[in-house]
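Researcher: Please predict.
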Amino acid sequence: MQRPSSSERSQDCDLWSLSWAHFAAQGQRKTMEDEWAAVMNFMGRSDRAFFAIFDGHAGGSASKFAAKHLADTIAHQPNIDSNPKKALIEASLKVDTEFLSKVEQILEEKEELVKAGTTVVSVLIQGKMFYCSNLGDSGAIMSRNGRAVNLSVEHRPTQKKERKRILDAGTSIHRNRLGGTLAVPRGIGDAEFKDVENHCAAASTAEPSIKEFTLDDKVEFLVLACDGLWDVCEHQEVVDFVHSRIRKHQNLLSISKDLVNHALEIGSTDNVSVLIISVDTNHPGH
């Protein structure tokens, strides 16, 4: 069963022109737990934009909460202009704290919320710079002169840094999962691995990895997606897929839909969400 979701828009400023499209499908999952966000003229500035994909697990409560609050929380960070990387980290931790507080308040009524969490991948564009922030296995790439460039860091419990934090917190790793259940060591939510009373306060963290890039004339487009895409498609494969359809003058919404359906056709059994952002720095304002 599929529950398609789609949207498409554009934005111009003196530095660049952006066009973007989003498409998502439920795939074979019983529920749709992915969410997304796209904010044009972010913080009232024509040279700013914000995009994000949220891949929820154990229900959609964490992904819905993060999708609703993350952009606004980033916008209200006092250091968003002077230190965007720090602002993105602090905003992610703040949204996590607020969601965990909500979980704690209603845990007796909804015990299953202790397992609710979400991965996140986001891109904040500020003038000629952009910042990719991610938690877990949702990821982003850019096409730079036709070559795929990875923008994010895939977090797995077996990685040296993640493994040390998990084990130091007193949590086991079994079948490459925290406590044998959670596949990603970073995310918003996942209260059972952040609850001090359960002696695993630091097993999971909402501190994202962040990379900084310049929007120059070699950057053609960005692709943000959940692991429903990346589990079945290589980065260069996605770049080539999008390029081949741009050459045929397909619009971004049609390309996004084709990419999601391609992932499902070649074996993805997960929710699949894709955001494609086309960048033109040679003809800004058009």
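Model: DSSP finds six helices and 14 strands in the chain.
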